[in-house]
Amino acid sequence: MLLILIIGGLSSGSSVSSASKIYFFYIYLFTAFLPMLWIVYNEHTEVSSSIVGVMALYIGLLSLIARKISQNVTENIMLSFDKEALITQLEAKVVEANSATEVKSKFLSMMSHEIRTPLNAIIGFIKILQQNEEDSKKLKYLSTIDQSSAVLLNVLNDVLDIGKIEAGKFKIDKVTFNPQEEFNSLLVLFQQSCLDKGIILINSVSHSLPLSIEADKLRIKQIISNLLSNALKFTSKDQTIELQIIFKPETSTLYIAVIDEGIGIEVDKIDKILEEFTQADDSTARKYGGTGLGLSISNKLLHLMNSELKVESEITKGSTFSFEIKVCCGKTLDKVDPNSEIKFDGQKILVAEDNKTNQMLIEIILEEMNLEVSIANDGLEVVEMYKNSSYDVILMDINMPNKNGIEALHSIREYEHNKKLFTPI
Phi and psi at residue 309, in whole multiples of 5°? Predict the structure, then answer.
C-alpha cells in the first residue's frame, strides 16, 4: 500500500510536469503502475480486487487531468505564438502606415509645387496686366481671375500644410514683431470683402498690447486669417464679425477671439468641424463651399504652440472661436517709415530658375525695379555664370535639373571660400 501511494503521488506530479508532451506522461504512468497492478491482481483477495479497481479509476482520472493540462499548455503556447505574430503584423502595419504617410506627404509636396509654379506665374502676370489696364470691363475680368487664383493658392497651401504637419516636418519659427501693427494690417485685408457682403467688421484689437512680442507671427496671422475667412463665409448682410485681441500680462498670453453673428453650429457637430476635410454637414459644403481644412489646420498649428482652438456656438445666434497663446515680450522695435521707398541703381542680380514662364515674370518685375537681370536655367549654369562675372545678389530656385539649388549653393560657397568672397543668395 505504501508503494502504491508513493507511485500514485509521483504519477500525480508527472501529470503536470510531462503533460506538455502527453505521450511522455503515458509512458511514465503505465511503466510505473502496470507492474504494481499485475502483482496486486494476482493476490486474488477481496482487498486486492478493490485496490485494482481504485488504481484503475485513479489512472483514468490522471489521464483526463493530464490531457486537460496538455491541451491548456498547447493553447497557451499557440496563443503566445499568435501574440508574437500579431505584434509582428502590427509593427509591419505601423511601418506601412508611416511609409504611406511619407509617400503621401511627398506626393502632396510635389503636386503642390507643380501646381503652384504655374499658378504663381498666373497671379504675377495678372498683377502686371492690372497696372497697365484702363478698360473697366477688362479690369473686372482680371480681378475675378486674380481672386479665383488666390483662392486656389490658399487651398494648395492648406493641403501642403496638412502634409507637413502629419509628416512631423512643421516647425514653429519665432520672431519679434509689433502685434498692434500686424493684427490691424490683417484686418485691412478683410475690410473690402466685408463691405462687399454688407457685413460690419469690428476692430477690438486692444490698444494696450506690448510694443513687441516674440512668437510665430506668420502662423498666428494664418490662424486669425482662417478664422476670419470662416466667419465671413457663414455670416450674412447687416451682421457683425469682431476680432478681439487682449494681452494678459499676469500670464504673458495673448487672448484672440473671432466672434460672428452667423448661422452657428449644432453642439454635437462642434468636434466634427475640427477634423480634416470636414464641415458640419454635406449641405453646408454645397452651400458655402470650402475644403474644410482651415479650422483643422488652425487647431493643429495651435497644438504645436501648446494651445488649442475653443469653440462656442448657438444655432442662428453665431459662433466664437478663441485661443490663448504664450508669448514673450520682445525688445522695442525701431519704427520704419511706411512711406519710405527702397531704390535700386542698376545692381546686378542673377536668377536661377528653370521654368520659362517664371523667368519671364521675374525678369519683368526686377527690371521695373531698375535691376540688371541675368537668368540661369539650372544649377550648373548658375555656377558657371557666377564664376565668369560678379553679381550683387543671387535668387536661387531649389528644384532644378542637372544640379539643384542646394548643390549649386554649396559649389558657389566653396568657390568663394577659396577666393575670400561672399555673395548673398
Answer: -90, 125
Q: Are β-strands 213-215 and 175-177 bridged in parallel, bridged antiparallel, or unpaired? A: antiparallel
Q: For residue 115, name the pLDDT band (cuts at 50, 70, 90).
A: confident
- Taking the model in full, what pTM does it have? 0.59
CA distance to 73, 175, 300, 345, per residue, from 275 (Å):
47, 29, 10, 51
Instruction: Count other C-beta atoms under 10 Å from residue 243's C-beta.
Output: 22
Residue found by looking up cell 486486492 in the block: 48
Mean of all residue pLDDT scores within the chain:
84
Which tens digits make up the pLDDT trace of 166-218? 767 778 888 999 999 999 988 988 888 899 899 999 999 999 899 999 999 98
